[in-house]
Every structure is written in structure tokens, then in C-alpha cells.
Amino acid sequence: MNKVSLMLERVRISRVFDFPGVIEAVSEFSADLEENDRANEEKLDENEHKRTRSIADSEDEAMEDLSAEPEPKATTEDNPNTPKKPSASMLVIDNIANVLGSTMTKSQVQGHALLANFMRSLHHLSKRRHICTLLINAAVGLRSQNTQYHRRPEDQVSVFASTVGKPGLGKHFSYLVDTSIFLSTLPRSKDDADVAYGDARESRKYEEVGVIEVLKDRYGSREGRWSAFVMEAGLELRGVRL
């Protein structure tokens, strides 16, 4: 079995179409972890019971054990019957803006309230289970080809003036996560930028690179940092210098 198949066996996908579906899927995910914990505890109890029954019950055997060299204590790695910890280490929700859009359309106040409650529960689950949770948001606003495009200063979230996009769900969303990361693309070189933004608007192709920026960092000092990258073979990210 190849590596891709092995990786896919470790992935569980839940398809949902609205925000209540997301809440239900996360609840099922949490319940599965709880069930794994109970199964692990039962297995540990069973192994402990088997170990206890194997202890010698005669006085001679007990004395013989005392005079013998102590055997090394078995560890969980030595015992193949010892249950493993749940392998779940990452939760990805892609994307939160699509499923929350209808709720926000009806009432933004109610939508933000539901989102805040959900995020508190998700934060608690991630911390308690030591899970890396990626909550993907949509970006609104496209990079303008018009250099005379005017926008409000508060709409500029990127350190690059030519990037006019911003995260969806408003500013409120960025305060509900630990780290807010923004992905965009930029021309790779000055010549590429001349083609992309030049007045002549040449039709020839130009090279772009991906840019990752830290917009918010609740527990660190990475806010405002950025890095450029390219994707190779559709899988590998490689950093580049601009």
C-alpha cells in the first residue's frame, strides 16, 4: 500500500451544507474521541486484570521471586496489547464562511452570536485534546488591476498595498481565533509587477508567488510577519525571496 493510501485511511471527511451541520459534525468528532477514551480505559483494565491473575499465589513462588533478579518493568511500548492514544491530531473546517453565509444574511447579530458560541466550544475542544484546528475562512475583495482604486484605510489588512482582499465574516472573526493567517498572491519580480499593474496592461503572462501573512497573533509577536512561497508538484511548499 502506497503512502497516499495510508494517509487517506487516517482521514475522516464529513460533508455538511449549513452551520448546524458543522456543529453536529464537530460534536460527533468529539464524541468519537470520548468513545476512544472509554475503549482505551476498558482495554487497560482488562490488561491489568490479566496481569494480576498471573501473579504467583504460592508462598514458595513468592519467595523464589524475591530472590530472583528483578525483571525490567514492561512499558506501553513493549506491550502490543496496550491501546494507543487516539490518532486524531488535526481538525480542518473548510470553509466556515460558506456555511455561515445564510445565517449572516438573515441576522448578522444572531450569526455572530452563534459563531462566538461555536468558537468557544471549538477552542475548548482543541485545547483539551491538543488538536491543531484549521478554520478556513473566505477572502472577499479581489486584487485590483487598477492602480487608482480607492479603498478605506480600515479595509487594508495586508502589508502589501496591491493586495486589497481581506478575510470574510468581518473583523469580529479575527478576534475569535488564536492566529489569523492571510494567503494571497503577488507578482514575483519587478518585471512581473510591471506586467500585472502596468498602464499598458500587457496580455503576456507573468509569474506569481504565494504570500502568507500573520494578521493576528493572540499569544505571540508574529503579527505583521510574512513569507513568500511557491508550490512544487502540487504538494511541496518552498520558500522564496522577493
3D architecture notes:
The chain has 7 helices and 8 strands, in the order H-H-H-E-H-H-E-E-E-H-E-H-E-E-E. It is α+β, with helices and mostly antiparallel strands and 242 residues long. The chain has a 4-stranded antiparallel beta sheet. A two-stranded parallel sheet has the order 1-2. A two-stranded antiparallel sheet has the order 3-4.
Short description:
This protein has helices at 3-9, 19-53, 59-67, 96-106, 108-129, 170-174, 190-197, and strands spanning 90-94, 132-136, 139-140, 166-167, 179-187, 208-217, 226-232, 236-240. The strands form 3 sheets. The chain has a 4-stranded antiparallel beta sheet with strand order 5-6-7-8. A two-stranded parallel sheet has the order 1-2. Strands 3-4 form a two-stranded antiparallel sheet. The protein is globular.
Spell out the key features of this protein:
single chain; about 240 residues; alpha+beta; 4-stranded antiparallel β-sheet; two-stranded parallel sheet; 7 helices
Give the arrangement of secondary structure elements.
Layout: H1 3-9, H2 19-53, H3 59-67, E1 90-94, H4 96-106, H5 108-129, E2 132-136, E3 139-140, E4 166-167, H6 170-174, E5 179-187, H7 190-197, E6 208-217, E7 226-232, E8 236-240
Parallel strand pairs: 1-2
Antiparallel strand pairs: 3-4, 5-6, 6-7, 7-8
